[in-house]
Amino acid sequence: MTDIRVAAVCGSLRDASTTRLALEVALEAAEQAGASTELLDLRAFELPIFDADRDREDAGDAAALAARLRAADTILLGSPMYHGSYASPLKTALDYCGFDEFEETTVGLLAVSGGAFPVTALEHMRSVCRALNAWVIPHEAAIANSHSAFEDGAFVDPKLEDRVVTLGQRAVQYATIEPDPASFESDQNVGAEDK
């Protein structure tokens, strides 16, 4: 495969983010599988809280972020789990995007948690992606007890690392998959129009 572009969006703003560490591992695997990769660190973007009355072009770096996502063949979304869902910086970034960025695009999901498995965060991200007619990779990476999952920036558990590496490989493998028919959710998703 050539010219496959994989972009990862890190929904964590922490300096010592385990989400970012895990996404970097996934991107390295995607690069080894032949893709060009980019980490979109939301700390580097000015993204005001979403306001539907504000045009994306007038909302800080929202238009620039959306353009970089549109250029990707696969988008990896990574987030810590907060209160049973994914983080607000990622939610804001996704709210500034819509069908132009996600429809018929392959998306991979990764979530981390300081405690139990971040299953609901993954489910919520999957629901948003299906509402935008993205094709979500069945394989996903869940990292529980994230503060003990890494030591000196590397995974402690090789099986967990393998799950994240596999996500990066699948990001390349399924980058050009034939998309599913439109989902019911997307038909009802009027909030994403013109975004």
Automatic annotation (TrEMBL):
| Transmembrane residue ranges | none
Which is an annotated GO molecular function term of this record? oxidoreductase activity
- Gene3D superfamilies (alphabetical): 3.40.50.360
Q: Which residues form the NADPH-dependent FMN reductase-like domain?
A: 5-147
Organism's domain of life?
Archaea
Coiled-coil stretches, from where to where? none
The cofactors required by this protein are: [4Fe-4S] cluster
* InterPro entries in the cross-refs: Flavoprotein-like_sf, FMN_Rdtase-like_dom, NAD(P)H-dep_reductase
GO CC terms in record: cytosol
Q: Which family does it belong to?
A: Belongs to the SsuE family. Isf subfamily.
Put simply, this protein is called NAD(P)H-dependent FMN reductase
State the organism named in the record: Natronorubrum thiooxidans
**Taxonomic lineage:** Archaea, Methanobacteriati, Methanobacteriota, Stenosarchaea group, Halobacteria
